[in-house]
Amino acid sequence: MGELEGKVAIVTGAGRLRSIGRGAALALARRGASVVVVGTGRDPTTYPEDEKVVGWRDIESVADEIREMGQRALPVIADVSDAQSVDELVEKTVLELGRVDILVNNAASPKGADRVPAIELERSQFSLVFAVKVFGSFYCAQAVARKLVEQGDGGKIVNVSSIAGKIGPPSALVYGAANAAVDAMTKSLARELGPYGVNVNSVCPGFVETVRWDDMLGTETWEKMVSRGVPLQRATDGDEVGEFIAFLCSVGGSYLQGQCINFDGGKVMEH
Question: What Rg value do the Cα atoms of the chain yield, rounded?
């Protein structure tokens, strides 16, 4: 039996082939957890080429991978920026799987029109990024926390943030601000939920080889950013980040609380 046997995890933003969400969902399943795989119901015509080639089916494909491990999987389409949709997600989880123990807040709006200088940033983009990352993380954390307190068995909440929330990169104002807000929520939640035995932490990745970086992967600019900016001189991927998230949800992470942990190969070193 895995150490998370009998536990139920919700992972948002988990439908992409190359993603932190999928990596976390699979890592949790390998440790014995049942997993609710949450996605937005993407239009298949928008899938990246590697997903089209393998006949990827978004959250259904991830759910199938989990079932192949012998674990339960529940694929759910939900809009985390909508409070009612989130409440329905959590209620569906408890109704079909009996409880909830773990939340991985990974959903984020796609990288794109928000990555421009601040004076050119459309205000609608600011609202969109915050709606998914900040409001979505709050709605999910609040709904799951209510269940965790009610159950009385403790639990784990891991917010996927970014080192962007700490360094404030240019042409990414709203992305950095949204992740800084997630880190601030993490600390408040950790103080409030600690007495109930609920661990709340943030993981702050650096360069991760997911679809979000497809516009730069393999380019000379990418290679320079990684080799010059990361002491380990390599990027990470969704599977590696997912394994760390699963660690935070297991016994090894049981005394970590309110931490916003850089998972970036040493790019940002704090003291």
Answer: 18
**How far is the C-alpha of 199 from the C-alpha of 197, rounded, in Å?**
6
Looking at the structure of the chain, the number of domains it has is 1
Domain that holds residue 92: 8-263
Q: DSSP code of 194?
A: G
Whether 229 maps to a domain, the answer reads yes
Using alpha carbons, list the distances in angstroms from residue 37 to 77, 219, 248: 8, 32, 18
Residues 74 and 63: beta-carbon distance below 8 Å:
yes
1 within some domain: no
**Residue 137 covered by a domain:** yes
Mean pLDDT of the chain: 96
Query: Which of 47, 175, 196, 255 does the annotation list as catalytic?
Result: 175
Question: Residues 139-189: pLDDT tens digits?
Answer: 999 999 999 999 999 999 999 999 999 999 999 999 999 999 999 999 999
Tokens standing for residue 194:
């600690």
Q: Is 111 exposed, middle or buried (0-12, 13-18, 19+ CB in 10 A)?
A: middle
175 a catalytic residue: yes
Residue 156 sits in a domain whose CATH number is 3.40.50.720
In a domain, 120, yes or no: yes
